[in-house]
């Protein structure tokens, strides 16, 4: 796309005004980059961003870390994938554009970034494949909650005398799914809340998995946030 629009409210929005000049510059770059997508989900390696913004990689990574902690973006340097939270806020899609967004999200390889998008824009969840599903629609093991797998396997091998256990399990599963819909947390918020409350890395990962996020993507994001926190403490 040749151009992007940013509302004038960008300069008066409190959470934007808290950013440093460098952080605002990186956020504006993400919102207006010629490589961006109207969904806010796109491929953007640090090397490319560094070249186009003129910022050194270290300063760029620091700004990306701050924007991630503020839940304005979600970024994975391992996959060079980014989700810019307010992209759709500034670019209201029409019918055809919405179809394009749905197709783009279903095909995007980093499902943890797609999960971050769905955590904000829940209205797309019915038309975008769940992040733990493979393109064929069958469940893929790396995106599956291990506890759900064990429960289902054990229940299926039980005798008829354990019907009540199966019923209770299904009821609990429905409650968990309803809770997920009622509490659309982003991956960044889960990680930030976990770190602020003193949770271990594994506890944070398990919490994120319970909310439907991909373990591989979560581990990368947790490591990234913890590393940024260590650097900030030095």
Question: Could you give a short description of this structure?
Answer:
The chain is mostly helical. The protein is 58% helix and 5% strand.
**Biggest sheet: strands, sense, closure?**
3 strands, antiparallel
N- and C-termini, Cα separation:
41 Å
**Which series of helices and strands comes N to C?**
HHEHHEEHHHHHHHH
Strand arrangement, major sheet: 1-3-2
Helix content: 55-70%
Low-pLDDT segments: 133-157, 179-184
The count of strands amounts to 3
Q: If you average the pLDDT, what whole number results?
A: 77
The gyration radius over C-alpha positions equals: 19 Å
The computed structural class is: mainly alpha
The number of distinct helices, counting runs of at least 4 residues, comes to: 12
Work out the strand percent. under 5%
Gross morphology is globular
What does this structure look like?
The protein has helices at about 15, 20-30, 45-55, 55-70, 85-90, 95-105, 110-120, 145-155, 165-180, 185-195, 200-210, 215-234, and strands at about 40-45, 75, 80-85. The chain is mainly alpha-helical. Strands 1-3-2 form a three-stranded antiparallel sheet, with helices on both faces. The chain starts with 13 loop residues before the first helix and ends with a helix. The model is unreliable at about 135-155 and about 180-185 (pLDDT under 50).
